[in-house]
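General statements about sequence and structure are easier to judge against a single worked case. When preparing material for the folding task, we compiled for one chain both its residues and its backbone structure tokens. The amino acid sequence and the backbone structure tokens for this protein are reproduced below:
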Amino acid sequence: MSILILKNATAAQIYPAKVWENVDIAIESDKILAVGPGLCQRYPQAQVKEMRGQLVMPGMVCSHNHFYSGLSRGIQANIAPSPDFISTLKNLWWRLDRALDEESLYYSGLICAMEAVRSGCTAVVDHHASPHYIAGSLSQLRNAFLKIGLRGMTCFETTDRNFGSRELRDSVEENIRFAREIDAAREKGDQALSGRGPYRRPCAVHRSG
């Protein structure tokens, strides 16, 4: 495996907090081999990237996302006044998630994944909902994650809000299906089953969960 050296970087360590200026960082695959001066001499065969003092730091983790909303920025929606969170959900976000299909979900996920990486986030936790496109939707999000190289956990909202018990069953089955897909693939995704807010779940789910 080839070694990459980030030369003349500003390296930041989160814990314990520390900053090194004008240092080299030697990387092999996904492992940092060394941080310090003069690493080009220690690894003469390495590929070298001149950083000119640019900041290198551990990737951040964003623990709450809704990647299905990626296409909504700047949306001109004619919605009723929404003075509280529940009315905002009813008048905007639940209307949006009902409109998602396979293509729009993929590009929404792609946009959000690119924005995450550009902002320094290398891992995210995403809570997804698309009631008209349930089966296979988490795999479509995973495709967007892998396209960009973003790590993440995702789940499908477990609810009977739109179509009753059928929607509830299909939501649970999609989470189970995707968990098995991740177990088989062992790649850059992970899976968590989330019940979301209590106002979205019937009592039976509370009792069984």
Summary: Residues 165-185 form the longest helix (21 residues). Helices lie at 39-42, 85-99, 102-118, 137-148, 165-185, 203-208.
